[in-house]
Each structure stands twice: as C-alpha cells, then as structure tokens.
Amino acid sequence: MIGKNIAEELNKQVNREFYSAYFYLSMSAYSDFLGLKGFASWFLMKNQEETQHAMRVYKYILDQGAQIALLPIKQPPSTFDSPLAMFEETLAHEQAVTQRFNELVDIAMAEKDHATHIFLQWFITEQIEEEATVSEIINKIKLVGGKGDGLFMIDNQLGQLASTQSVAAV
Ligand code: FEO
Predict the structure, then answer these.
(1) DSSP conformation class of 161
(2) Atom of ligand 1 nearest to the CA of 130
(3) Does ligand 1 lie within 6 Å of residue 17's CB atom?
(4) pLDDT at residue number 168
(5) Looking at ligand 1, which residue's alpha carbon is closest to its atom 1?
(6) 130 CB under 6 A from ligand 1?
(7) Left (φ > 0), alpha (ψ -120 to 50) or beta: where does 74 sit?
(8) Which residues, in sequence order, are CB contacts of 128 under 8 Å at separation 6+?
(9) Helix segments in the chain, DSSP class H
(10) Of 20, 43, 73, 155, which sits most exposed with the smallest number of CB within 10 A?
(11) pLDDT band per the 50, 70, 90 thresholds, residue 76
C-alpha cells in the first residue's frame, strides 16, 4: 500500500508518460510528412516505449492497492523547426523527465516509502540511456550540417535501429 500523496504523484507521472508518447507520435507524424521514414520509425519506437513506461507506473499503482485517475493529455506541438530541432526538443523533454523522476525519488524518501523508491530506480537508470542516445543523434545531425545526403544516411540508420526493435513507420 502506498500513501495518498505518492499515489497522486504517480498518477501525474502516468499522465506525463502518456504525454511523452503523444509528443513522440507527433514527431513521428511530422518526420513522415517530411519524407524521413527512418526518423518516423524511430519516433514511433519512442512512442511505444513511453506507452510502456506509462503502463509500468499504472501497474505499480494498482499493485500497491491505490486507484488510477487518468488525467487529460496535453496537446503536443504538430510542427517542428527542423529534424535537428526535433531531437533537441526530445533531449530537453527527457532532461525535464529526469528532473521529475529525481523529485519523485525525493518525495518517496521523505515519506520513507522504500518500495516506491526502489520502483523508481529503473526509471532513473533508463533516463541515463535515453539522454545519451538522443545526444549522440544530435551530434551526428550537427556533423552533417542537418541536411543533404548525410541526413538521409542518418534517417536510414535510425530506420534500421527501429526495425531491429520491430517497429516500422505506418
Ligand atoms: Fe519515459 Fe523517455 O522517459
């Protein structure tokens, strides 16, 4: 059993993870619109990962005997300045998510909620990898000047990466 405050905070996190899924789905759609099918597949993979994150928290709340309260999902942007901008926005978003997980750990520690503290460790570790992966893609896009053959090469690489994880653009 978890406390009311923690349950509320975790419900808000379910909502944030669904927003992340929505945010990346919007980037997938915009990439597809630009003809960047590999980018589209990669963001679709992110969309699925974020949905899994939401469901991981959702299941934990229920396993702990607390109630789910689904909140409205904010509308994400539908256009982005450039392929590079999408990844820069992704990094900024993930950094904000990391910050939020750190705050959730602070709350769990303050309430001496050891189970939630342990549960959150998976996300703290996951965030390190997510930020590193996105930073690497940003560096690659910058190296090729964000356009031309180099950009299509990166598009191809991202498409292959997504396909190894069984996700292809629709
Ligand atoms: Fe759910 Fe990208 O962290």
Answers:
(1) H
(2) 2
(3) yes
(4) 65
(5) 50
(6) yes
(7) beta
(8) none
(9) 4-34, 37-63, 83-110, 114-143, 148-164
(10) 73
(11) very high
Atom of ligand 1 nearest to the CA of 49: 1
Establish whether residue 16 lines the binding site of ligand 1, counting it when its CB lies within 6 angstroms of any ligand atom: no
Residue 165 banded pLDDT, cuts 50, 70, 90: confident
The alpha carbon of 17 and the centre of ligand 1 are apart by a number of angstroms equal to 6
Cα–Cα dist 147/149, whole Å? 7
Q: What is the spatial distance between Cα 79 and Cα 12, in angstroms, rounded to a whole number? A: 26
CB-ligand 1 contact for 20 (6 Å cutoff): yes
- What domains are defined for the chain? 4-169 (1.20.1260.10)
> 50 CB less than 6 Å from ligand 1?
yes
- Distance from the first to the final alpha carbon of the chain: 41
Q: Quick one: tokens of 155?
A: 């598009």
Q: Is 93 in the pocket of ligand 1 (CB under 6 A)?
A: no
Amino acid 169 reads A
pLDDT digit string, tens, across residues 95-112:
999 999 999 999 999 999
